[in-house]
Each structure stands twice: as structure tokens, then as C-alpha cells.
Amino acid sequence: MSSSGRRFVFTLHHWTDTDWEYLPRLCDANTDIEYMKVAKETGSEGDTPHLQGCVQFVRDFKQRESKVSKILMGPNKDITRPDPKNPGKHLKHHYHVRLMRGSTQKAADYCGSIAKEEGCEIFEYGHLKVVKRGERSDIHDVQEAIKKMAQEGTPFVEVEETFPKFFSEKPEWVRRLYNRYRKIRQNFFEEHEMFKWQRELVEYLNDYPPDPRKIIFIVDEEGNGGKSEILRNIEFLFPKKAVFGLAPQDVVSMSSLYPDDGADIVIMDCPRQQQYNDLAYKFLEQVKNGSLVQTKYQCQQKEFRIPHVVVLMNRRPKTGTSILFEDRYIIKEIELEPDEKERLHSQQTAALPPYLAESVTRTREILAECEEVKEAKRARYSFNEQ
Fold first, then answer.
1. Alpha carbon 118 to chain centroid distance?
2. Are 26 and 74 in contact (CB under 8 A)?
3. Do 97 and 221 have their domain in common?
4. pLDDT in tens, 26-37
């Protein structure tokens, strides 16, 4: 019994025009055929005129040789021809099909090869992926499939179930590839107009090369001015740039996370509680110098191109020559235009679900009470100091 597969070579002796004309119709109608090449070989090597071909089906379509022969014959399977050795009898009309041993590319090169004969007519359907020397085609196929599933929003558990062998052997590789291409959110700015400061920042980062020394600090002391939306939408705002976004951590962790090949833009979004002393100015300066030392896991020196560096904050950065030299700073304070403030207010006061809306008033009262308690404590402390 023949084994099954998805790549085959085949030969049809004493073919008819009907056989040849059927092949294009078969490829157009059968979605399981990924690639096919067939040559009308005249038998110049001493063989009888025949069709020499190869076929590759899609990954999930695996069949036996006998089944593939029937697929190739289609409605022509009932054609018979006289047996020259036995007058009065007829020979069956069918393809001789064998599982392919080498690569599909080699089989395709063999069909109608100039080394065999020149000028034979060739039919070819589909395209073969070019696999470079040393590159495994199975890994390439799986990689493309995972990228597509991630971009289409397929749950990760389905990726695991689709490629159990790869996930068991390379779980981190599969997870990292999936996370790189998955679509996490919709573009916020498709439904909301950008503020002026956002638009100017995005245009500068997209259109101008990085300054070799400047670190841009975007300061929003009032808060809620749209800083975090920049980082949350980097894939839409900077489609042609490599962007590394992060929150402040210790220098060792950030140096480990920083891409080995660097980035075009680095954006650090600082939580309100990590604004002043906790900000890793050393890391920012090292990135702006194009060099980091990674001491976590495998120790190494990272050398990379100098990127734009942007820090999003709620207060002014720490200054002084012991922190950064003066020429490193570019501080831009956010101030929304009147119409932008109105637009922001309308977004904040948009209709909330009943579960949330019923608690808005009481929440404001609680926050006001907390501020009163703080003021009372500050007043007592000030009185005791006097």
C-alpha cells in the first residue's frame, strides 16, 4: 500500500488533447492544488510521447498515489486506447504517480528540462516559495501561518492546537512571533482627532532624523492630555519605524529588553508615581549614545543606531549636570487648545454604562472628602512647625 503525501511526480503516456486541456481547468477549480508544472515531452530520449509533471498540494491535503492519479485524470479516466501487443484489447488510460523524493523545485526543473529536450510546451500553475540554502521550508511555512493567524486575531490557544509539534519544541519562539504580529487594538485616532501637540510630535518623529544628543521630555502637569495614546498606537502612528515602548524599570532590566538591533524611536511612558528620582536617566543617556551593556542573562555589549528618545511625564524632569548635561534636554509642556479641551471633556462625559454611571457622583464626593482630609493634615503640620 502506498504512503500518503502532498507532493508528487507523475507521467502520462499516449496523452490526448483532452488530457492536456483538462489540466488548467483542474487547477482553477481545485483549491487544494498549490503548484503544478507539466511538460509535453515528445520522447526524444527514445521514450514514447508523454506528459511529465509534478504537483504540490496545500499543507493539510495529503493523499495516496492512486487517489492523486484519479484527481489528475478527472472525467478522462474512462478513455481507453488499443493495446499494441494484444489486438482487440485496450489499455487503461491513467497517470503513473509517485511520491516526490526530492524538493518540488528540483522536480519542476526536471519537467521539460533543456538537458532532456528543447522547445517542449509547458503548463505551470502557482508559484514556488524560494527557500534559501540552509533555510527550512517547514519553519518558514509555520512562521507565515502564525503571522497570519496573529494578524487576523486568532486566539493563541488555537495557534497551540494548530502547531502542537512546534509549540512543544519551541514554545517561546511561537509565543514571541505571535505577540509581535497580533492586533491588540483598533487605531484610536481613526475615531478621535489628534491634539496639536500629538500631531506635531508624530510628524517630527516620522519626518526628521534623530538628533545625536537631544532627549525630548513631554510634560503634562495637568494630566489626561493624551500622552499614553501615543504609546498605545505606535503601530498605527509609525508604520515604517521600529519603535521600542516601555515604562521605567531598573537599568539592568531595560538594557536586557532593548532590541539587539536597536530601534528608530524609543518612547518611555512614565506612570505618575515614577516621575522624578525613579526615572532611569542613565539608561536614557546610554540609549542616546547608541550603546548599552546587558548584564542580565548573557552579558553583552549592545551597539546600535542612535534613535529618537521621547519621555512622557506628568512633571518636569530632574535637572543638573550630575543627571544630564543641559544640551541633552528638550522640554515641551502640553497645553491643549480651547477646542481641544472641549473635545476632551465631551469624551470624558460620554454616556457610561449604568453600572459605572451610578457611581460617578459618589466617587467625586469621596475624592473631595479625601482632599479635605489631606488639607487638614497639612494645616496641622504647618501649625506644629510654627
1. 44
2. yes
3. no
4. 999 998 999 999
